[in-house]
Amino acid sequence: MNYFEDISIGDRRELPGRLISKEEIIAFATEYDPQPHHIDEEAAKHMLLGELVASGWHTACCLIRMIFENPAEPSAFLGSPGVEELRWRRPVKPGDTLRATSEVIEARHSKSKPGMGLTKTRFEVFNQDDVMVMTMETWGMIACRPKGAEASPTDAAVGEPT
Length: 162
Known about the structure:
Layout: E1 12-19, H1 22-32, H2 36-39, H3 41-44, H4 56-69, E2 77-88, E3 97-109, E4 116-126, E5 132-143
Antiparallel strand pairs: 1-3, 2-5, 3-4, 4-5
């Protein structure tokens, strides 16, 4: 189990590729973001981008799926208090293969919940041409190692509670 004490600022991870199909783009947008440039190829030709593109929310959901389908190891993840920044940099098109990187950029013990730590992670999402299509910075709540549980060599990496 990976606890808060096992996480260090600067920890990086690569998330493998995920192919985005035209059918997936249309299905997602039909359900959640039914704008013409996401659901209708013909209408999309007459809009700003000139072609069918994925909803930015679809791209964000694909990132979340990649994160949880490819855990480094089981985690004591408790949830998230929210996303601090989300930027759609370039459109995602049918046939794109997305991959992502993550980096822990902040880590601290919770002031109000002593058994929990908070980590801020920056995600960068790229297409098959290594073009950045999305960035996101988000906080995660991670359980601290229970008293008496075996410590790992990285326990001191995040410092004392603040």
